[in-house]
Amino acid sequence: MMPKASYFGRGTGTYREKARDVIANAEVYHAAYYRAETFGGPSLYFHRRALSSRLPPGDKIHLEYVYATLASWGMHRMGKGGSKMQNFSVFNRSICLLLPKIAEVQQYDVKEMKDDNWRVIKEIFQGIQVMASGTSLVGNSKVMHHMMPNIVPPIDREYTLTYLHGNTNIKNDLESEWQIMKNIITEFFVPIVINDQFSERAKTWISSQDDSFPWDTSPLKVVDNLIIGSRKI
Question: What integer pLDDT is reported at residue 13 of this predicted model?
Answer without folding.
Answer: 65
